[in-house]
Amino acid sequence: MGGIRQMIKVNGRACWTLFDPGARNTYVVPEVAALLTASKIRKPFRSAIGGEVKETTETALLEAEVEGRRISTHAMVINEIGNDENGVRIEILFSALAMQ
User: Fold this and answer.
1) Which of 4, 22, 32, 61 has a CA-to-CA distance to 100 between 20 and 30 Å?
2) pLDDT digit string, tens, across residues 16-25
3) CA atoms within 13 A on the CB side of 64
4) Where does residue 13 rank: exposed (0-12), middle (13-18), buried (19+ CB within 10 A)?
């Protein structure tokens, strides 16, 4: 996976994050979603990440701190995003839209 990787804070917890300008949606794993306001969606949402199709029935309002700045964006909750090139588990995948 390409893009910039760094820790960001979600409710005081450091989360390993991939900023991916090619991603259409923002994603979080369930451990991060537990820190957020999450809700069920009516129909399953499917998207391709890392070469496979993933499905979710939950979304979350991601409020975080990135380099001292507060951000808020919508995120899909999926079980696994994947690992970065060094084998570190990615907890948040930030999309191009969220980066604007």
Assistant:
1) 32
2) 999 988 888 9
3) 29
4) middle
Q: Quote the tokens at residue 52.
A: 């496979």
Widest Cα–Cα separation across the chain: 36
pTM for the whole structure: 0.90
Contact 20, 2 (CB under 8 A): yes
Q: State the Cα–Cα distance between residues 29 and 32, nearest whole angstrom.
A: 6
Average pLDDT, the chain: 90
Domain of 67, CATH number, reads 2.40.70.10
Q: Which residues 6+ apart lie within 8 Å of 95 measured at CB?
A: 20, 23, 24, 25, 26
% pLDDT > 90, the chain: 69
